[in-house]
Amino acid sequence: MLIFSGNSNLPLTKKIAESLGLEIGNLEITTFADNENRVRVKDRVVGEDCVVVQSTGVSPNLYYIELFLILDSLKRSGAKSITLVIPYLGYQRQDHIFRDGEAVSLEVIIKIIESLGVSKIISFDFHSIKIPELFQIPVTHLSAIPLFAGEIKKMNLDDAVLVSPDMGGIARAQKLSELCGNMPFISIVKNRDLNTGRIESATINGRVGKQAIIVDDVISTGETLVAAGDILAKNGCEKIFAMATHGIFAGKASEKLQNSNIEKVIVTDAINIPKNRVFEKLELISLAELIAKELRNK
Length: 298
Ligand code: R5P
Hints:
By secondary structure, this protein is α/β, with parallel strands linked by helices. The protein is 29% helix and 27% strand. A 7-stranded mixed beta sheet has the order 10-9-8-11-12-13-14, with helices on both faces. Strands 1-4-5-6-7 form a 5-stranded parallel beta sheet, with helices on both faces. The model has no long low-confidence stretch (mean pLDDT 95). The structure holds ribose-5-phosphate (R5P). The site of ribose-5-phosphate has 15 residues, from strand 11 and helix 6.
């Protein structure tokens, strides 16, 4: 097996490669003056099973183009198979038409990935459980929820509830609840303006404990978590934690979360978080071992 990395999440690829006892393969990725990318695989890949690790985050367009060119270079150079490890599949929240006239962006991304000869996809905690069905190729949908359950067990909480910050996340909170010995879970009803993306209102559905752990798939602007933290605090919650698989931290999200009612924000390394987005309340857990295990069993 050969493993290659785009530029989106080299630290995660390094950990995966280390766990598998592999060296990261040699790709030459350069950028022309006009910002077009140029990709060339320097290793011999003829007849080899190749793994490509690339995530997205705040620069989905850049990293998707890079990924498409990496896939094409491997296929043209004779790779036997390509497993794409894409811990965060960017554009996944645009998986259907919300307003008349919109593109179904995720479908476009999937069509391109499939047309480039990917044999299999490994990804984490999709926004919707229907996403694997949109692919024609096999998808291994892994989850960080068991890792979050491990973190919660270490926390020593005596009156805690799990919180889904919106109705769409209830199944996720339920799964975490089962892994935490049926810890109670509640949900927030959140209304977002479809034109501006701003949260207009949030109300709680259920009894709040002394401690709350908000669980979500992705943090982008941070507004969902901040709104959830505010309403939980208003309802008497004393300690509020948040856990999400994908930490994009777009715009001023890090600052907003640092100044919020939330005490600690735990995310995985599905998306690489550059130093300028790291904040004091942030804690990271790694997906590398779960990915390495999956690749070993492949
Ligand atoms: C929404 O349905 C998702 O599960 C997340 O709650 C949401 O996308 C987070 O976005 P933001 O951080 O911008 O509020």
